[in-house]
Amino acid sequence: MSSLQRTSTVLAILCSLTVALAQPVPNPGIAHIPATPKTVAWGYYDAAAPPVLHIHSGDTVQFDTLITSSPKRLEEAGVAPADVQQSLRDIYKEVTNKGPGGHILTGPVFIEGAEPGDTLEIRIQKIELAIPYAYNGFSPGRGFLPEDFPYPRMKIIPLDRQRMVAKFAPGIEIPLHPFFGSMGVAPPEISGRISSAPPWIQGGNMDNKELVAGTTLFLPVHAPGALFFIGDGHAGQGNGEVDITALETSLTGTLQFVLHKKEKILWPRAETPTHFISMGFNEDLNEATKLAVREMIAFLMEQKHLSRDDAYMLTSVAADVDITQLVDGNKGVHVMMPKDVFEESSDKR
Question: Cα separation of 54 and 303, whole Å?
C-alpha cells in the first residue's frame, strides 16, 4: 500500500469516527406506564408503596397521568360522558387503597441503586395534552379566600391543542404551558404514608409552573429505589394558584432519570434553560421563603463557589423570589437565579 493510500485510509477512519461520535446517544432504556387501577397511587406518597416499574439510571419513561376529578363531577360540570377517559372511570370504580390526598399519581417507579443521600435528576423531555379540556374550581373552606367564596363552582375550559391556548371565556384566551403539579419521590420510611396535598422534602405537590418540558428537577432520595410518583397535570397556572386549582387536565409526560450517587441535597431544586431554581415549603410563608433563599445561598456556595456573604448579596441583587402556591397546606416559594449573570452556566443543582 502506498503512503497516499495509507493516508486516505487513515482519513476515512477518522471521518467515520467523527460521524459516529456526532450521532445522538440513544436512551439506554424506555418504557410506558399507562394510568390504570394497578399503576396509580391515590392521594399519597409512601416508601412502602409497591413499584410499578424498575428502571436504571439513564432510562426514559413515558407516563400517562389523569385529571384530578371524578367522572361524576366532570359530567355535572358539562363534560360529555364520551369525553371522560375510561381509565379515570376504571380507577374510580376499582381503586380502594387511598391516602388522605386527592391526587391520582402514576407510579411509583423504582430506580435501581438509589439510596438515601443520593440525588435524583429528572429531565422533563416532553409534556403533551391528553384531553381537549381542563377545569378550574373552588369549594367551601378551601383556597386562599375561603371566607369570600363559601360555595362551590367548577368551570370546564376548552383547550385548543393546535394554537396552545385555553378558551377561558369569550374574548379571554390563556397561553398553555403544560406541567405536572406533582412530581416527587417517597418520603423517609419513618414518615409512613403522607398526603399527596402538601409539598415537602420529597417534592410532591409543588405546583411550580416553571417545570415545563425542557427543564430539569432535582430531588433528594429518602428511601431505597427513590420511588418516583407523578400526576396533577396542569395545562397552565398562575403563581399562587389562589383558588386551589389550575387548568387541571390529563397529561402524558416523557422523563429521563439520572441518579447522582452520594450527592446530597436537602430540598428540591430545578434548572430551566435560563434559570437556576431553589424551593422552600412550610405552613408559614415567611419560613418557606427563608428556606428557599437559604437553599439558593447553599447552591451558589456549592456549585458556583461563592462565599456565604457573596451568595446572599447576589441573591438580593439578581434573583427573583416568587410565591409558588399559597393553598396546599405547606406554602411554596421559589427563587429564580438567572444564568446569564454567570460566565459559565453548566453547573446544576
Answer: 31
Phi, psi of 149 (to 5 degrees): -135, 70
CATH number for the domain harbouring residue 349: 3.10.28.20
DSSP 274: S
Judgement on whether residues 304 and 238 belong to the same structural domain of the protein = no
Q: How many CA atoms lie within 13 A of 95 on its CB side?
A: 24
What residues contact residue 333 under an 8 Å CB cut-off, 6+ apart? 279, 280, 281, 285, 288, 289, 291, 292, 321, 322, 323, 324
The widest CA-to-CA distance across the chain, in whole angstroms, is 91
Q: Is residue 270 packed enough to be buried (19+ CB in 10 Å), middle (13-18) or exposed (0-12)?
A: buried
310 in any annotated domain: yes
Same structural domain for residues 192 and 231? Answer: yes
Q: Which pairs with CB-CB distance under 8 Å and at least 24 residues apart come from 159-167?
A: 159/129, 159/131, 159/132, 159/133, 159/134, 159/235, 159/247, 159/249, 161/129, 161/132, 166/134, 166/235, 166/236, 166/247
**What is the structure's pLDDT at 14?**
35
β-sheet bridge partners, residue 248: 135, 234
183 or 12, greater pLDDT: 183
DSSP string of 314-337, one letter each residue? HHHHH-EEEEEESSSSSEEEEEEE
Q: To which H or E segment does residue 136 belong?
A: strand 133-138
Last residue of a domain, one of 248, 264, 280: 264
pLDDT, position 8: 41
Q: pTM for the full model?
A: 0.90
Query: Quick one: 189 and 107 in the same domain?
Result: yes
Residue 49, pLDDT above cutoff 70? yes
- Identify whether residues 256 and 288 lie together within a single domain: no
- pLDDT at 10 > cutoff 80: no
Shared domain for 198 and 72, answered yes or no, is yes
Write out pLDDT tens, residues 141-172.
999 999 999 999 999 999 999 999 999 999 99
Question: What residue type is assigned to position 141 of the chain?
Answer: G
Give residue 326's domain range: 265-349
**62's grid cell:** 413515558
Q: Are residues 253 and 108 both part of a single domain?
A: yes
Instruction: Report the alpha-carbon distance of residue 211 to residue 248 in Å, rounded.
Output: 15
Pairing mode, strands 30-33 and 60-64: parallel
